[in-house]
Structure formats: structure tokens, C-alpha cells
Design a protein that fits this description.
Layout (H helix, E strand, L loop, with lengths): L6 E5 L9 H10 L2 H4 L3 E5 L5 H8 L5 E4 L16 H7 L3 E4 L2 H6 L4 H13 L3 E6 L3 H5 L3 H12 L9 E5 L13 H19 L7 E5 L4 H8 L6 E4 L6 H8 L4
Parallel strand pairs: 1-2, 1-8, 2-3, 3-4, 4-5, 5-6, 6-7, 7-8
Helix pairs in contact: 1-3, 1-11, 6-8, 8-9, 10-11
The structure holds glyceraldehyde-3-phosphate.
């Protein structure tokens, strides 16, 4: 058995209504045995659809998750949901530290770390996002930024069963632009070494996904890069045909 099963996660962001369950249904239909054994697929719809999607996906082996959580278990946090609530709906994972949360809501590394710890407390897998801005890359600071985000947001005691990292260069998200294969290989190789140093043998089990304008047209090239263990997909995860085509890279 491979050390790290490839994982393709769809982040629907603030898109989708109840009728979108039909799109999930098409994903389930297309996630046949030839794909199931080779790649794990997951969909993170908006919070309003988590419960519905969990029911639709029951028995399908597609994981359903959330896009964020509060680090606390419960309390006076209007508008928020906790990791325990996601687990209670049947969710299996939660994205934390996404750059849109970091930028729009000024979330810090410490908050992303607390959310990853909350995910573990609730028995969820945290998909922890890190990545540099365009200005940071142009300044030659991409690796330094990644290092600082890793040190600030990866929790102690992370394992291959409770943490997945997602490298998402901020400038590649929703822009149609991607780093070169050499640039992706450099960052993923760097993260892999960092995990090895921090967690030893267990670090080898932690998957590192690439995210940022992954589409069926570039998935083969990106997913073949060393230390890329799957993808975190935004726009192209909204349509079953595109999302399945990306996952089918592993078939
Ligand atoms: O979480 C997903 C990422 O932000 C990537 O989004 P994108 O595939 O639309 O560029």
C-alpha cells in the first residue's frame, strides 16, 4: 500500500444551493471502483449543505467536509460552526487557514493552528493551507514565508491521519495562472523535508496537496510532480465532469 493515498479535495467556497446535490450525485456516479482504489475524493460545500451532502454521499466513499471552523467547541460565536458540529453532521475533514480567510478575515497562523487542533479534537482531518503572495514570490521570499507559516500553523502531534497540508500560492488562486513545475517541486520538496525534520517517520505520511487554478488541462502535469500528493481544487470542483477528470489523473 502506498505511503500516502492521493487526495483530491474540492472547495466549493460560497457556491451551491440544495439543487447542487445533483452535481454531487454525478460525482458519486463517476467515482467508480477504478478510481476509488487509487485516489480519495472529498468535497467541501458551504456549511448550509454539509448535512445534505453527507446524506447523499453515504456509502459512496466521497468524503464531505467544511471550509472553516471555529477553534472552540461551542459558545457565543455568532455565525460560526465548530469542528464538533461538522463531525456531528457526518463530515470528515475541514479546510483551515485558507488564504481567503487569512486575507479577508485577517486570520493568523496561530488561529489556523488552533483550528487544526480543534479538527483533531473532533476527529476530523484538517487541510491546512499555506502559500505566498505574488509580491513575496517576486521578492524571493516564497520559501521564507512558507517556513514561517509552517512553524506558526502546524500543530504538535500532527500525523498522516489528522493533517493534510495544501500549498496554495495566493496569486494562483482563481487566476488561471500556476507556478512552473520547478517552482511547485521546490516548495513541495521543501515542505516534505520540513515535515521529516519535525515529525520524523510520521511526517512522511502527511500529504501535501497543490492548490491554485488546477484544471483538467493541467492536472496531469501538476499531479506528476514529486511530493505532490493531490490537489485542492476551487472552481473546477463545481462541475462533476471537471472534478472527476482531475481525479482520473490517478486512474
Ligand atoms: O481552495 C481552493 C483554492 O483556493 C483554489 O481555487 P481555484 O482552483 O479556483 O484556483
Amino acid at each position: 500500500m502506498a505511503l500516502r493515498t492521493p487526495l483530491v479535495v474540492g472547495n466549493w467556497k460560497m457556491n451551491g444551493l440544495k439543487a447542487s446535490a445533483a452535481e454531487l450525485g454525478r460525482m458519486i456516479e463517476g467515482y467508480g471502483p477504478e478510481l476509488r482504489w487509487k485516489v480519495q475524493m472529498a468535497v467541501c460545500p458551504p456549511a448550509t449543505l454539509i448535512q445534505t451532502f453527507c446524506v447523499v454521499a453515504l456509502g459512496s466513499r466521497i468524503w464531505i467536509g467544511a471550509q472553516d471552523c471555529n477553534a472552540q467547541q461551542s459558545g457565543a460565536f455568532t455565525g460560526d460552526i465548530s469542528a464538533e458540529m461538522i463531525a456531528d453532521c457526518g463530515g470528515g475533514l475541514v479546510i483551515v487557514g485558507h488564504s481567503e480567510r487569512r486575507t479577508i478575515y485577517a486570520e493568523t497562523d496561530a488561529e489556523a493552528r488552533a483550528k487544526a487542533e480543534a479538527a483533531r479534537r473532533a476527529g476530523l482531518v484538517a487541510v491546512l493551507c499555506i502559500g505566498e503572495t505574488e509580491a513575496e514570490r517576486l521578492d524571493g521570499r516564497a520559501i521564507a514565508v512558507i517556513d514561517s507559516q509552517l512553524s506558526g500553523s502546524v500543530p504538535d502531534g500532527a500525523t498522516g491521519s489528522n493533517l493534510v497540508l495544501a500549498y496554495e500560492p495566493v496569486w494562483a488562486i482563481g487566476s488561471g495562472r500556476t507556478p512552473t513545475t520547478a517552482e511547485i517541486a521546490e516548495v513541495h520538496g521543501h515542505i516534505r523535508k520540513w515535515l521529516d525534520r519535525r515529525f520524523g517517520k510520521e511526517g512522511e505520511r502527511i500529504r501535501i496537496l497543490y492548490g491554485g487554478s488546477v484544471k483538467p488541462a493541467n492536472a496531469v502535469e501538476i499531479l506528476a510532480i514529486d511530493n505532490v500528493d493531490g490537489a485542492l481544487v476551487g472552481g473546477a470542483s463545481l462541475k462533476a465532469a471537471d472534478f472527476l477528470a482531475i481525479a482520473a489523473t490517478y486512474a
